[in-house]
């Protein structure tokens, strides 16, 4: 019978290993697009930053936050997004593989599901995928430093890419010449090239590109009018206010303390 079969074969379950995340730590899941160098070329992303693609990344991250439990903040740039689960989360018994695969598959399916909203008639040529990893951070300082590290990466790459593509698109250099020109240059040199040769002040470039995207939950009072009818009264319009939690996007500095002082409810003690 099937009962016999179950008892005979069930021992294989014991081959599963325990991947429970340590208590009290923030659980960070970072996703990164697989081979997006190729993906961006095949889908003709504008360089250095395709806003359709950035919008689609954010939309997908938004879906992850709404569909999964306990994510308190997410940060994304380029083809990557990091999701932070609250310290006290017990979702899926804190099993790393469950959390990571749910984030990765919810994100990937959303990326495909919402593609048309951002790329219109331009077809998605093949199914994209994202790798995932789990990292645990025990202190608020470690977690802030993790997010600072990703935002610093965004800054370094965006400054480089902005100068590189300006040299190509406005300066008439080939990609090889632009690469050569930038070899060994420091941030100050790159700012100087932009400013003196192209009258571009890097600080005035879009915050979305310079700072990436931070998603957090915000409480908003939402007022809706409802038609109500009480016994022996005329039907009338009544406004009902309730507090709703929704995902809000920021393109601001998260390295300094200001952001954290303005949003003290994100991190726990
Ligand atoms: P891997 O599979 O190892 O991650 P990859 O090709 O995805 O390989 P990354 O280091 O993740 O390598 O780099 C992502 C690439 O996608 C970079 O070339 C980056 O410029 C490009 N890219 C990502 N998002 C955008 C965007 N919104 N607009 C233009 N280019 C983008
Ligand atoms: P969990 O998130 O814990 O996996 P679940 O609802 O997905 O919850 P499963 O044990 O995975 O629970 O069960 C999958 C359910 O989907 C079952 O009820 C199964 O009968 C149903 N199901 C899956 N595939 C089919 C199918 N092809 N046709 C009809 N029902 C299906
Ligand atoms: Mg990579
Ligand atoms: Mg990648
Ligand atoms: Mg990447
Ligand atoms: Mg199932």
What can you tell me about this protein's structure?
It is an enzyme of class 2 (transferase). It catalyses: a 5'-end ribonucleotide-tRNA(His) + GTP + ATP + H2O = a 5'-end phospho-guanosine-ribonucleotide-tRNA(His) + AMP + 2 diphosphate + H(+). This protein has 269 residues and is α+β, with helices and mostly antiparallel strands. The protein has a domain of 145 residues: Alpha-Beta Plaits. Helix content is 43%, strand content 22%. The chain contains 10 helices and 6 strands. The chain has a 6-stranded antiparallel β-sheet with strand order 4-1-3-2-5-6, with helices on both faces. A hairpin with a 7-residue loop joins strand 5 and strand 6. Helix 3 crosses helix 4 and helix 6 crosses helix 7. The longest helix is centred in the middle third of the chain and has 30 residues. The termini are far apart. The relative contact order is 0.14. The mean pLDDT is 96. Bound molecules: adenosine-5'-triphosphate (2 copies) and magnesium ion (4 copies). The site of one magnesium ion has 4 residues, from strand 1.
């Amino acid at each position: 019978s099937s009962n016999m079969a179950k008892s005979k074969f069930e021992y294989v379950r014991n081959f599963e290993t325990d991947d429970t995340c340590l208590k009290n730590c923030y659980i960070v899941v970072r996703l990164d697009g697989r081979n997006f160098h190729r993906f961006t070329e095949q889908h003709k992303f504008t360089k250095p930053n395709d806003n359709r693609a950035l919008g689609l990344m954010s939309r997908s991250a938004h879906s992850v936050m709404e569909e999964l439990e306990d994510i308190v903040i997410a940060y994304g740039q380029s083809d990557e997004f990091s999701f932070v689960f609250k310290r006290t989360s017990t979702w899926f018994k804190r099993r790393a593989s469950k959390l990571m695969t749910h984030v990765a598959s919810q994100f990937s399916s959303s990326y495909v599901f919402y593609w048309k909203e951002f790329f219109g008639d331009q077809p998605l040529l093949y199914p994209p995928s994202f790798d995932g990893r789990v990292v645990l951070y025990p202190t608020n300082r470690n977690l802030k430093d993790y997010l600072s590290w990703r935002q610093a990466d965004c800054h370094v790459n965006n400054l480089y890419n902005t100068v590189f593509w300006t040299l190509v698109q406005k300066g008439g250099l080939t990609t090889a010449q632009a690469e050569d020109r930038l070899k060994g240059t420091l941030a100050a040199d790159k700012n100087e090239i932009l400013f003196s040769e192209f009258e571009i002040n890097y600080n005035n470039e879009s915050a979305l590109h310079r700072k990436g995207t931070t998603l957090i939950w915000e409480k908003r009072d939402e007022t809706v009018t409802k038609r109500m009818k009480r016994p022996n009264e005329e039907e009338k319009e009544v406004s009902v206010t309730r507090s709703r939690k929704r995902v809000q996007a920021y393109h601001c500095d998260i390295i300094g303390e200001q952001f954290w002082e303005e949003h003290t409810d994100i991190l726990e003690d």
